[in-house]
Specification:
It contains nine helices and no strands. The chain is mainly alpha-helical and 204 residues long. The longest helix is centred in the last third of the chain and has 31 residues, at 144-174.
Length: 204
C-alpha cells in the first residue's frame, strides 16, 4: 500500500478508536476502580479483538460471519454479562483507595477474554470493519504485505489511544483519597460498566 493510503487509514482508524464508546467506557471504569496496571489485560483483549475483526474482514469472511450470526450474538452477550459482573464488583467495592496487590489467580486471562468478547460483540467495531474499512482500503487488492502493514498500524494506534485513556483515569483516581470520593467513583464506575453492557446488548 502507498503512504497516502496508509495515512488515510491511520487517520480514520484513530478517530474511530478515540471516539468514546462502550469499550473505552468499560476500560476507563476498570482503570478507575483497579488502577492502570490491573486494566492492561482488559486493554490487551480489546486490541486483540480489533485485530480479529480486521483479519476476518481482510480474509473476506463477511458472508461467513453473517451466516454464523448466532455465534457473534452469543459472544456479544457473553461480553455484556462480564461487564455486568465487573459493574457489580465495582459498585460493591470498599470505599477506599485500592492498595497495590498481586492480581488474583486467573484474573489477567479473564480480563483479556472479557476484552475480546466485548470487542467482538461491539456494534461500533463491527460497523467500522465491515462498512467503513472497505471504503478506505481496497480489500479485494489486499496482499499479504498490505495486511501486515495495516495490522502494524492498528496495534500501536489502538494500544496507544487506550493506554492514554486508562492512564488518565488512573491519575484521576489517585487524586482522591476520601471514602466518600471513592464511594462515588465506585458507584460511577459500576454504573458506566452497566451502561456499556446495556448499550451493546440493545444494539443490533
Amino acid at each position: 500500500m502507498d503512504i497516502s493510503s496508509l495515512a488515510l487509514f491511520a487517520g480514520v482508524y484513530f478517530l474511530a478508536v478515540a471516539s468514546p464508546g462502550p469499550a473505552i467506557a468499560a476500560l476507563v471504569a476498570r482503570s478507575l476502580s483497579s488502577g492502570f496496571r490491573r486494566s492492561l489485560p482488559f486493554l490487551a483483549g480489546i486490541v486483540a479483538g480489533d485485530l480479529v475483526w480486521f483479519t476476518l474482514t481482510a480474509l473476506g469472511l463477511s458472508v461467513l460471519m453473517q451466516s454464523f450470526h448466532g455465534v457473534f450474538v452469543a459472544i456479544k452477550y457473553a461480553g455484556c454479562a462480564y461487564l455486568v459482573f465487573l459493574a457489580y464488583k465495582a459498585w460493591t467495592a470498599p470505599a477506599e483507595v485500592p492498595k497495590p496487590s498481586p492480581a488474583a489467580r486467573g484474573e489477567g486471562l479473564r480480563l483479556f477474554l472479557g476484552g475480546i468478547a466485548l470487542t467482538l460483540g461491539n456494534p461500533k467495531v463491527m460497523v467500522f470493519f465491515l462498512s467503513i474499512l472497505p471504503l478506505v482500503i481496497d480489500l479485494n487488492a489486499m496482499s499479504t504485505l498490505a495486511f501486515v502493514e495495516v495490522a502494524a498500524l492498528i496495534a500501536p494506534i489502538i494500544t496507544g489511544t487506550l493506554m492514554a485513556y486508562a492512564y488518565a483515569a488512573d491519575r484521576a483516581r489517585r487524586l482522591v483519597a476520601s471514602p466518600r470520593a471513592m464511594r462515588w467513583i465506585n458507584r460511577t464506575t459500576g454504573g458506566v460498566m452497566a451502561g456499556a453492557a446495556a448499550a451493546i446488548a440493545t444494539r443490533s
